[in-house]
Amino acid sequence: MKSISLFVILLGLWLLMSGHYSFLITSLGVLSCAFCVYVARRAKLIDKEGLPLFFFPRLFNYLIWLFKEIFISNLNTAKVIISGKIEPETFTVKASQSTDVAKVTYANSITLTPGTVTTKIKDNMFEVHALNSDFGNDVRSNVMDKKVKWLEGDQ
Amino acid sequence: MFLAALIACAFSGILILIRIILGQTIFDRVLAVNSLGTIIVIGIALHGFYTNRPEFLDIAIVYALINFIGTVAVLKLFSTGSLGEQRK
Amino acid sequence: MDLFIDIITGLCFFIGSLSIIIGACGLIKLPDVFSRIHAAGMIDTGGTAFFLLGMILQTGWSLITVKLILIGVFVFFTSPVTSHVTANLARKKNLMPVGKKIGKLL
Fold it and tell me: Which of B58, B50, B43, B53 lies closest to A19 in space, CA to CA?
C-alpha cells in the first residue's frame, strides 16, 4: 500500500519535471520510478512514518495559519534587527503531542518562524532560544502546541 | 524589475561574504554559506526570468537540494570526524 | 490588468529584497551564533516566499509554476532542518548563548 503510494508520488513528480511525453521517455520514467521503489523497499525506508495520512485533512488550515505567523514574526524580527535592541533568552517548553511526526512538525514550526529556534530535543522537552522576550512569550503561551495537537487529531 | 531584484541579491551576497570572512566559529561560516546558497537559488531563478529562459529553474531545484545535503554533510564531518559508520 | 500584475510583482520583489538585505545586515550585526540563526531564517522564509510569489504572479499558470512551488517546498522543508542541526551542534560543543537563561536547561 505504502509502496504503491510512493510509486504514484514519484511518477507524478517525474511527469511534472520532465515535460516530454513521448512513449520511450515515459516508459523509461516508469522503469526508473519502479527501481527507486525497489531500492527503498530493500533499504527498509518505507515504515509507518513514511506517509502520515492522518495529517492531510487539516493540513491546509494549519499551513495558512503558519504562513500568517511567519509573516508577522518576519516583521518583528526586522524591527529588532534594525533597532538593534536584542535581549536573547533560552528556556524549555513541553510538547504535548504523542506521535513522533507531530513532535517533529512542532519543532520545525518553531524553527521556521524567525525569532525562535529549537536548539535541543530530549524526549518531549524542547530547549528554545528566542531573540526577545516577546517571541519567548509567544512560544510559552502554547498556542502553536495546541494547533499541532489539533492537527494531529486523536492518535 | 528583475534586474533590480538581481542587484539586491548581489548586494546581500556581498554582505554575507563579509560574515564568511569575519566569522569567529565554524558554525557562523556554515550558516552564512547556507544563506548564500539560498540567495543563489533565488538569483538563478531570477536570472532565468530576466533572460526569458525559464529552464534555469531546474538548475535552481538541484542547487537547493545540493545546498541542503552539503551543509548537513559538512556539519556531520565536523561533529564526528567521518561521513559514515563502519558496519560491525 | 497587465499593469496591475506588474505592480503587485514589483511590490513583492521590493519586500523580498528588503527582507534579504535586512537579513544579511543582521547576519553581520548580531553578536553570537544563536542570534545569527534568526537572521538566516529570515532570509530563508521571508525572502524566498516573496520572490517566489512575485515570479508565480509573473508566469501565470503553466508547468513553470509547479517548478516554482517545488522550489518553495524544498526550501521550506530544508531550512529549519539546517538551522536546527547548526544550533544543536553548537550546543553540543558547549557554546552557551548570550543573554538570560530561564529555568533548568537540557
Answer: B58
